[in-house]
Amino acid sequence: MRIARVIVDVPSRETDRPFDYLVPERLAEWVETGSRVAVPFGGRTLQGIVLGSAEEAEVDRSRLKPIADVLDAVPPLSEELVEIGRWMSRRWLCPLTVSLQAMLPAALKGKTEKYISPAPDAAWTVLERSVYADFLHALESGGPLKLSQLLQQHPERADAVKQWLKQGKLEERQKVEDRLSVKTVLTVFAPPEAALRDALAAIPARAAKQRELLAYLLEHPEPIAQAALAEAAGTTTAAIRALADKGILEVKAVTAERDPYADRHFAPSAPLPLTPAQREAFAPIAEAVERRAHETFLLHGVTGSGKTEIYLQAIDRALSQGREAIVLVPEIALTPQMVERFKSRFGARVAVLHSRLSNGERYDEWRKIREGRAQVAVGARSAVFAPFARLGLLIIDEEHETTYKQEESPKYHARDVAVMRGRLNGAAVVLGSATPSLETYGAAIGASPGFGDRDEAVRPVYIPLPERVADRPLPRVSIIDMREELRLGNRAMFSRALADALRTRLERGEQTVLLLNRRGYATFVMCRSCGFTATCPHCDIALTYHRGSQNLRCHYCGYAEREPDKCPSCESPHIRFFGTGTQKVEEALAETFPGIRVIRMDVDTTTEKGSHERWLTEFRERRADVLLGTQMVAKGLDFPYVTLVGVLAADAALRLPDFRAAERTFQLLTQVAGRAGRHELPGEVIVQTYEPEHESIAAVEHHDYRGFTGRELGHRQALGYPPYGRLLTLTLSHEQVPLLLSMGQTFATRMRERAAAAGVRGDDSSSDRAAEVLGPVPSPIPRLKDRYRFQCMVKYRGDVDARAWAAETLKELAETAKRHGVQMSVDVDPQMML
Ligand SMILES: Nc1ncnc2c1ncn2[C@@H]1O[C@H](COP(=O)(O)OP(=O)(O)OP(=O)(O)O)[C@@H](O)[C@H]1O
Ligand SMILES: [Zn+2]
Ligand SMILES: [Zn+2]
């Protein structure tokens, strides 16, 4: 490779193309596609990724600069992942470096460090020589000094350094360094036994600590971490160092793995004999894995139907072929219980990737995969980029979950990435859910267009699994009309039915899961006299009341203010907070059922690392009667003593301005209902609502996925929403409105012109619109952190290439946007309309 094509890590549209660099002789062996390199770029040194090689440079060869350094011994990205990155940036319209960086663990996101050293011909004055004697000596004898470190240790030298750099007495060099290196542990190695005995005999009796140490090592000769040895032998590290200085012991830095599950024991589990229904569902998946054929499946299995056991056995097939597997689960469902099922079956071959790991832990898990020491990766969204070389199977559990779409750039959907990796690797892809998304389900049963990329629409093979294992029935669901309760004089938070059912559970020692659907149900402060609501001064979003700290907080920017005791607008004292928060439910439970043991899980109680796990373990060990929480209690939990599930405010999210509101509500209710009666004890579900007739709620009563979905697909088709039409949104933000309006209008106009040029009907009045451009209008969140936000939405049919028009239009607007500091953010196939 004489010339390397490098994509530099500057996430802007102007630099979004490869630049050519010479590969110096000394690096020739190390530079490959996917290598991370340091390159000079516009006077700086930046990190870049090698995309490939070129025979001839695009510019005059003599003007090319050489690559400064290669940052890893093995390229962190394979050719396949580089290919995936290229495809992602076309698919979701983001700069290539953004999609490439998304595949690297945070620890490998290099930062540029400055080093200073004296210029060879620097002429120091006598004064400098005397005032800075120590410093100059260190500089001249010790090699380049890291600037950031120097300034931290000696801030008083900053002025002198600046001066000298300006005078050319110091030279500055930049190097790209990893944010984090491999962790090393100082480890003590003892000599062979005979040498140890000799040493012990030679140590004078007064060096008691050293003698104790050697005696200990005679008993325990295996290498041991220095700190652990000091503790175990009851001595100090000074004693160890003294022996090392004498050459008796050897102390070396040894790379250590941070295994977050190191202190946990997983009882091995053997494959369960599959039920006939499971066997039937398993067969086509196993067959595809054996054939090494890329095929996508939708495993539509009701809650508790044994999907996970099918995943485990399919993975086993892939492993026995010497291939590897990725399992994606929603972040929130990545509980110890879930991890345990995989660790128990596959032991140390499993690497776990989730956001609660530290950067270092994540990096170590990632290296296990990259170096072939793990064959199964279980993780949240970004685990889809697990750097395996022989992928045979990709599984996405709870495939309908919105968390598989990343909300920041690159705004990719892990489902689409999984299918693309499946294609490139000849691997099977299994999408599993009790409530598949309309996109996947519609495509699988042939009712709507395929999902995914325009030219490569995916139609999964449909595999139904309609029964729970072992003939366990689905739980009985009752819908309670809360208006009726009110009419009968019950003003409490719990309907009579739910209160009775709860009481029975308490008597029997069984457990209850209570879900408070709080999306769009903020606990906001309102004045009863004038209707004033407290909003964030930077974001135009209602502030949320926090009882613990007695203040009002903005969930978007963190702004906080004290709870008002009178209305800031009309001075009325009748200002109070509204809405049902989990805290309020907890209080109501304690009042209604004295002595009840409640675990509350919401954003406030689960911020601390590991707290989520702790609560669930406590609940599993039956140290609480009720698990009360928001969305996070709805997913993936499998507790034998849960026989009652209650839902408060089932309709809370139905009025959100999002065309998926009904679908989300149905999915959430069905999933949480599925937590009841999964083992021997039968389950019961009570859903409280003010809108019992709403399709998404009524359908839950009879577990009627097909009925609900059929009607919902009809609505979507009539309105041209996904999965029939596609969406693309552009959000513009800036401190000033007029600029946003004019840029938004330019975008909309240029998009309409492009539609017309392509011969596509785009006028709003036509019933057969192939592409429609809406906006600019204020975004659902009209202001965020003091910036106004406007958006345009493009609604288009799958056969229209509106994405390409958007890409061209954005390129045209890029210069203006940069000049005025307008942020443009495009979302292809958005999942969240808020
Ligand atoms: N073949 C089998 N024989 C006996 N028990 C089984 C079998 N398959 C699964 N189970 C058990 O049935 C229960 C439900 O299975 P599992 O959790 O795999 O279902 P699931 O479809 O993944 O559920 P959900 O989507 O609701 O999380 C578990 O306790 C599991 O151990
Ligand atoms: Zn008021
Ligand atoms: Zn705010």
Automatic annotation (TrEMBL):
Residues 288-444 form the Helicase ATP-binding domain. Pfam families: DEAD, Helicase_C, PriA_3primeBD, PriA_C, Zn_ribbon_PriA. The keyword Secreted does not apply. It catalyses: Couples ATP hydrolysis with the unwinding of duplex DNA by translocating in the 3'-5' direction; ATP + H2O = ADP + phosphate + H(+). GO terms for cellular component: primosome complex. Keywords: ATP-binding, DNA replication, DNA-binding, Helicase, Hydrolase, Isomerase, Metal-binding, Nucleotide-binding, Primosome, Zinc. Residues 559-714 form the Helicase C-terminal domain. GO terms for molecular function: 3'-5' DNA helicase activity; ATP binding; DNA binding; hydrolase activity; zinc ion binding. Binds 2 zinc ions per subunit. Zn(2+) 2 binds at C536, C539, C554, C557. Initiates the restart of stalled replication forks, which reloads the replicative helicase on sites other than the origin of replication. Recognizes and binds to abandoned replication forks and remodels them to uncover a helicase loading site. Promotes assembly of the primosome at these replication forks. Its EC number is 5.6.2.4. It comes from the Bacteria. This is Replication restart protein PriA. Belongs to the helicase family. PriA subfamily. InterPro entries: DEAD/DEAH_box_helicase_dom, Helicase_ATP-bd, Helicase_C-like, P-loop_NTPase, PriA, PriA_3primeBD, PriA_3primeBD_sf, PriA_C. It comes from Cohnella nanjingensis. Component of the replication restart primosome.
